[in-house]
Specification:
The chain is 72% helix and 9% strand. The longest helix is centred in the last third of the chain and has 30 residues. The chain is mostly helical.
Length: 170
């Protein structure tokens, strides 16, 4: 998988954007891994997917772990801005903000679920999370579809499809 990804980067990444995005995604996922370790958890499995890393872990502080990726992205953005690397700053900020959307399986959806379950109890929190996540996913899918049709960037439709598909897992 890594060799295929490397070949794609070499073949299609003319301006370095894909390389920077992959680096931003790596830093984001390392933020989650660091928080697992810092909170006393253990990493059981890490799988790379088209949508990021699927990290299985045991123990640890779930809220901190869910927030670890966006926090790492924010820290990377601030550091890059101080170094004058504005494209890397923008990619990290976009990754941070996107992942904070209240849509499962994004970090924001996980943070919402954990918070609502603690505030409202497991059953009510889960129902509220499903409603917010589905509504947010539908709104995001509509916005992405309209933007894709207007700009001709139809490849972004995979994002809307992926997030809507994931709603069935809630």
């Amino acid at each position: 998988m890594a060799a295929l990804l490397g070949a794609a980067v070499v073949a299609f990444d003319r301006d370095g954007s894909m390389t920077l995005l992959l680096l931003a995604a790596l830093l984001h996922e390392l933020g989650h891994l660091l928080c697992i370790r810092l909170s006393g958890g253990r990493v059981e499995d890490v799988r790379l997917t088209v949508s990021g890393a699927d990290i299985r872990y045991g123990g640890g502080a779930d809220l901190l772990i869910a927030a670890g990726g966006p926090l790492a992205s924010l820290l990377a953005a601030v550091t890059a801005a101080r170094l004058g690397a504005m494209r890397f700053t923008g990619l990290n900020l976009a990754l941070c903000l996107f992942n904070l959307l209240p849509v499962y399986p994004l970090d924001g959806g996980r943070l919402l679920a954990l918070t609502l379950e603690r505030l409202l109890g497991p059953d009510r929190g889960e129902r509220m999370t499903k409603a917010v996540s589905l509504t947010s996913a539908l709104l995001l899918a509509a916005a992405v579809t309209i933007a894709s049709l207007r700009t001709g960037a139809l490849w972004t439709l995979w994002l809307a499809s992926f997030l809507l598909w994931k709603q069935r897992e809630l």
